Amino acid sequence: MSLLRVTDLVVRAEGRTLLDLPLLEVGAGEILVVLGPTGAGKSTLLRVMGCLQRADGGSLAWRGEQVPWPAPLALRRRMAMVFQAPLLFSGTVFDNVAYGLRLRGERGSALRGKVEAALTQFHIAQLAGQRAATLSGGEAQRAALARAVVLEPELLLLDEPLASLDAPIRERLRDELRQVMRARGMSCVYVTHELPEAFTLADRIAVLAGGRLLQVGKPEEVFYAPNQRAVAEFLRAGNLLPAEVLSMAGGLATVRIAGRTLTAMSAFAAGSRALACIHPEEVQIARAPGAAGDWFDATVLAVTDRGPTLRVDLDCGFPLRALVTRRAARELALRAGARVAVALAPGSVHLIPGDGA
Fold first, then answer.
1. What sections of the chain are H helices per DSSP?
2. Which of 84, 87, 96, 314 is least enclosed, having the fewest CB within 10 Å?
3. What is the pLDDT of residues 198-241, one digit of tens each?
């Protein structure tokens, strides 16, 4: 049984539909990341799940029981929510983290023990007596997260809590947050538009765009097997090439792309037209063809520096983009005009419905 389930959810505002979701569930102990662009409806979905906003249609169920509106206080206390802004009030860090516990009547050593444990988990125990107004952005968000976690909620709802932080702090706190949630066995719905956060944190990813749920699955399923063009483009899959399925055998398809024949993972029938989705990091470049895989002669069109990696644009009879390490680029002497061999393993080519397919 799911912990929280929304069914036939509809939210409207000013004559337009903000959300239209047939079904979305959160399992006990699961981290579900809701991923999508700005304006997708992610924050609206989170407010509905947290019983802060009433939907115009559909239902919300907690452990299989329908949730009325307004939701009972006992249920709302089983959830906690953290926003992008820390929303700390005047007082010390300890007072902020202890606030919810005090509202629930906790006092004395039991309260102090819980607060100190939460502060320690988020590495701000040394800031317990410091005024909240003096904290840095990262410290303030740690305090906001500790204030939610100390309540021991069954469901933690996080609305882009790391979005305003600098990259190094965001990456460190992201890893720490996952450790805390795992250690406490919490369920979580985490809203973001950042791919690294989604793939670091998620047990499952729900891709949302235009208020509609496009795909739900494990991170590797969503990333390597997007179910439609919109998902592939949002996930920056890289290469989307028109393809024709020539034949099928054993779950593998022989497809034709711009006169070239290669092997793809597919359940499409022979004669189907589709889009071949090929991630740039899955493209192998060598000086000469190897023994296995689909190899093509190619010409390097351009090499673009992207910091840790280099983007390589290739002409294989069709345009293809690859990502390689700086070391590989140096060893292969990649430069515009160079002739190379390119390989695509069968598992690296995924077919999705094409426009009009």
1. 42-49, 73-76, 93-103, 108-121, 137-149, 167-184, 195-201, 219-224, 229-234, 326-331
2. 87
3. 998 999 999 999 999 999 999 999 998 899 999 999 988 789 99
